[in-house]
Amino acid sequence: MKDAFGLPQSLLVLGGTSEIALATVRRLVARRTRTVWLAGRPSPALEAAAEELRGLGAEVRTAAFDALDPESHEAALGKVFAEGDIDLVLLAFGVLGDQAHDEREPLNAVRVAQTNYTGAVSAGLVAARSLQAQGHGSLVVLSSVAGERARRANFIYGSSKAGLDAFAQGLGDALHGTGVHVMVVRPGFVRSRMTEGMAEAPLATTPEAVATAIELGLRRRSETVWVPGALRVVMSAVRHLPRAVFRRLPV
C-alpha cells in the first residue's frame, strides 16, 4: 500500500528503460518504494537498469513486455499482479519517430501511432482493470505538450500523444471513485537520448525534473502535471491561436 504521503511501496514501469521512468523510480526508491518491476523488451539495457536499482536497495524484477503486441498485454501484466499488489503503474513507453522520414514511409508513421497510442490504450486498460480489482493504486501516464496542438515539425508524434492524452483523461474520469487514481504528465522538451541532437525548445527540462514533478503530483493526487509548470499558461495561449497565425510560427 501507499505510505502516508501517497507514495508507492511497489511499482510497475511499462517501458523499463525510459530515462524519465528510471529517474522517477530512483527518486521513489530513495523515499519509500521497495518493490520494482521493469517491463520491456528483454535487453542488456533493461537488465542494467534493474541492477542499478538493486544497488539502491530495491527488490527489482523484470518482465517481458512489448507495446506492439497488445494480444500479450493481459498475460504479461497478469503475471506481475499475480505476485502481489502494485501501488503505481507508470506508463512510460513511446517513440519519437523521424517526422520527415515517416511522412514518406507511412508504415513507419503507423508504427509510431501503434506504439504511442494503440499499445498504450491496451496496456492502460489492462493495468487499470488490475488496479481496480485490487481496490487501490495509481496509473501515471507520460503524455507530452506535443499533444496539445499539432505542429508541422512533429504532427505524427504529436497526434499520437494527443490521442493518448485524451484516452488517459477519459480513463481517469471512468475510474473516479473506484480507488484508482490516474495522473497525466505533460513534459515539454526533455533533454534525453530521445532528443539528442535536436534543437532545444524553450522551457526545456530534464528527466530528473519530470521525476520531481511526478512525486509531487502523487503526493497531491493531481490529475494533470505540466513540466515545467509554466507550460500550462504557454500552451493555453498556443492552443487558442488562430490557425493562420500558428502556421507562421517557427515551430
TrEMBL record:
Keyword Oxidoreductase assigned: yes
Xref: PROSITE patterns: ADH_SHORT (PS00061)
Keywords: Oxidoreductase
One family name in Pfam for this protein: adh_short
Tree of life domain: Bacteria
EC number: 1.1.1.333
Family from the record: Belongs to the short-chain dehydrogenases/reductases (SDR) family.
Name this protein carries in UniProt: Decaprenylphospho-beta-D-erythro-pentofuranosid-2-ulose 2-reductase
Organism of provenance: Streptomyces tendae
Lineage: Bacteria, Bacillati, Actinomycetota, Actinomycetes, Kitasatosporales
